[in-house]
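Homework help board

Subject: predicted structure for assignment chain

Our instructor gave us this sequence and asked us to write out the predicted structure in token form, then describe one feature. I got the tokens but I'm not sure how to describe them. Can anyone check?
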Amino acid sequence: MMRDLSAGLRRGLPILLGYFPVALAFGMIARNAQVPLVHAAGMSAFVYAGASQFMALNLLIGGVPAAEIVAATLLLNFRHFLMSASLSARMKRPGRLTPLLAFGITDETFAVAASAPAAVSPGAVYLLGLEAAAYVGWLSGTVLGHALGAVLPPVLQGALGMGLYGLFIGILVPEARRSRRAALVACVSAAIHWLLRHFGVMPPGWSIIAAIAAGAAFGAALGDAKPAPPGRGAAG
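My token output:
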């Protein structure tokens, strides 16, 4: 058991290092938005939604009603249902750890757990260690970022805030290079959101929800993704 936990923690260390600077930026933005430490840390501890927390914080600052924030966050994180279902089909009996393991699934922990050979089922204790490392990185980064927001100069805080965009780019660009459909869906979703906001058709929360729903419908209508030709993919 301890060997599995240690292995999971080791595999989760790179995720911890990646989450920490982005969480620092979230903590600083929360402080600058006059969000108390207990609320910022509580969001990271109990919501633990990464990019959705940035979105929710921006919507909160903009005065968007709570119902719209909850709906937008639910749609943005709906992919977690699919990730959870995929892992549960491969895992050895998780037993009482199931709710805890489901809570800790993120894009990165899922990718690491799912990258194991098909013949190998990730154990519950291993996955617990993997998720614990990522969780500690996100929560500790939020708390420290909130504290540093009082002493770091605005220029440096702004630079750290760019980490969120780097995280999005790191997720989107490789997939867009591999699949034309992914690139097209991302462009269509962004265009719909921009048009809705530019012409004031919808408030911020609902424009995001509409863009997510429209992008998902457009992607489904395109059918199965086709990899890019040789020399045009991520390895090229």
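Reply (TA_rk): Your tokens look well-formed. For the description, you could write something like this. The chain has eleven helices and no strands. That's the kind of observation they're looking for.
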